[in-house]
């Protein structure tokens, strides 16, 4: 009995377990701990689910917002007058579709701008240094684009960047120019220029620019005895048919008119359609000329192909043979053949309007006249012995006096919708590189001066 009394309930048989060492586990306490753990697990799951819910809501909101504010990419929008109700002469970049461009969109547009210019812009002895500066300035201007806050800032950076090239024809197409040529090119949806001008994003951008197209410059015609005075501040193709009909009707009805005075002061139009139509009314005989054109990239190729296929309906056509520039047989002094890919031949063919008699032609330009009016003036001098007067402070030849038979090309920036005009062809003939003037003056009343000298 004594032995049994000393037996321990513990595993250590030789040691007796005291009563005070015995611990009784509480069921309630274990349940409490278990509930706490379960609650923590539950709260963690709820938090995760809540975060997932917020993420789903955010993604849905972004999708809906993006759907209603996305850039629409239709092949070719309808051309309607209301598209251009907000076009003016002054540049002001409004938001597209009610929102500003994102940083990513501006950066992609800037990269496209740079790559297109570098691959296509002409390089000659006069422009090589500016071209190198343009290329070297990419990084600094790209950083400016990344830091820009508004669409207007983005526009200003591009405008300043392109100005490095110091090229009259390479620039952002302004509202006035867009409006003046849009209606003309809408008639031929297959032409490369119409595809650019009619791109849905381009239309969306330019129709939102502040102003009205009623501000566009208009031709002024005045019958002054034996002189028909025609002042053309810009070649507005929107009024091309109306303007040409006015001039032709007056010349046909008034047989006393022997002289035509043309004032192109401040005219810097870049399109040639208006110029060629006016030329057909004024030249003394049919005009034909062949020019050799060098080009660096693919941008011009589509236009040359279009000229070849539609040569019967155009004033300028092309053989479009894609001759490698490296195989051009003669030495070139003004350009480096290694900078160019191809050369082709273009043909200018302008028929005289046989309903009109030949007139003496006098033309006034100033230091701001450039691009298409300069070429038109040169052709009138070459074909019709026009007398050319330039009113300017500087008597030296400038870049504004440059003759270009082939017009500039267009390309658009995908997100901002801005259209860029680019000089991408070099015409090989240094004998008519710059317009030659018969007289240079500097006066506050140049028109009076010219009219007094018309005999």
List the helices and strands and how they pair.
Elements: H1 2-5, H2 27-69, H3 103-120, H4 128-136, H5 138-147, H6 151-163, E1 171-172, H7 175-185, H8 192-197, H9 200-207, E2 220-224, E3 227-231, H10 240-253, E4 259-263, H11 273-282, E5 287-295, H12 299-309, E6 316-318, E7 323-324, E8 342-350, E9 360-366, H13 372-384, E10 387-391, E11 409-412, E12 419-422, E13 426-427, E14 439-441, H14 446-452
Parallel strand pairs: 3-4, 4-9, 9-10, 10-14
Antiparallel strand pairs: 1-12, 2-3, 5-8, 5-13, 6-8, 7-8, 11-12
InterPro entries: ClpP/crotonase-like_dom_sf
Protein name: Tail specific protease domain-containing protein
Region (Disordered): 1-38
Short synopsis of the structure:
With 455 residues, the chain is of the alpha/beta class. The protein has helices at residues 2-5, 27-69, 103-120, 128-136, 138-147, 151-163, 175-185, 192-197, 200-207, 240-253, 273-282, 299-309, 372-384, 446-452, and strands spanning 171-172, 220-224, 227-231, 259-263, 287-295, 316-318, 323-324, 342-350, 360-366, 387-391, 409-412, 419-422, 426-427, 439-441.
């Amino acid at each position: 009995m004594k032995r049994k009394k000393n037996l321990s309930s513990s595993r250590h048989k030789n040691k007796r377990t005291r009563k005070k060492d015995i611990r009784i586990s509480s069921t309630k306490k274990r349940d409490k701990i278990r509930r706490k753990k379960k609650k923590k697990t539950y709260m963690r799951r709820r938090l995760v689910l809540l975060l997932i819910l917020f993420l789903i809501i955010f993604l849905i909101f972004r999708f809906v917002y993006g759907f209603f504010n996305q850039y629409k990419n239709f092949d070719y929008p309808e051309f309607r007058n209301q598209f251009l109700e907000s076009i003016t002469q002054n540049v002001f970049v409004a938001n597209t579709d009610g929102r500003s461009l994102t940083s990513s969109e501006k950066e992609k547009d800037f990269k496209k701008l740079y790559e297109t210019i570098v691959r296509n812009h002409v390089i000659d002895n006069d422009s090589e240094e500016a071209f190198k500066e343009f290329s070297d300035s990419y990084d600094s201007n790209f950083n400016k684009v990344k830091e820009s806050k508004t669409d207007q800032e983005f526009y200003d950076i591009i405008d300043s960047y392109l100005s490095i090239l110091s090229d009259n024809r390479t620039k952002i197409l302004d509202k006035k120019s867009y409006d003046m040529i849009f209606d003309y090119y809408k008639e031929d949806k297959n032409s490369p220029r119409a595809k650019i001008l009619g791109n849905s994003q381009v239309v969306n951008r330019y129709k939102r620019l502040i102003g009205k197209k009623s501000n566009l410059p208009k031709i002024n015609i005045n019958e002054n005895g034996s002189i028909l005075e025609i002042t053309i501040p810009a070649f507005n193709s929107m009024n091309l048919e109306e303007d040409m009909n006015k001039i032709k009707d007056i010349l046909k009805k008034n047989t006393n008119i022997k002289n035509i005075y043309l004032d192109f002061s401040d005219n810097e139009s870049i399109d040639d359609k208006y110029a060629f139509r006016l030329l057909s009314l004024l030249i003394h005989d049919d005009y034909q000329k062949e020019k050799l054109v060098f080009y660096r990239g693919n941008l011009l190729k589509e236009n040359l192909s279009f000229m070849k296929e539609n040569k019967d309906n155009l004033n300028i056509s092309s053989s479009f043979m894609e001759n490698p520039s490296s195989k051009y047989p003669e030495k070139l002094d003004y350009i480096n053949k290694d900078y160019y890919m191809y050369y082709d031949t273009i043909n200018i063919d302008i028929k005289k309007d046989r309903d009109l008699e030949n007139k003496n032609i006098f033309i006034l330009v100033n230091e701001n006249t450039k691009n298409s009016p300069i070429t038109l003036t040169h052709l009138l001098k070459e074909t019709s012995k026009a007398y050319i007067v330039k009113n300017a402070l500087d008597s030296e030849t400038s870049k504004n006096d440059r003759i270009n038979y082939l017009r500039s090309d267009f390309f658009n920036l995908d997100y901002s919708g801005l259209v860029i005009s680019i000089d991408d062809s070099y015409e090989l003939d240094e004998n008519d590189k710059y317009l030659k003037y018969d007289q240079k003056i500097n006066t506050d009343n140049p028109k009076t001066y010219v009219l007094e000298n018309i005999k």
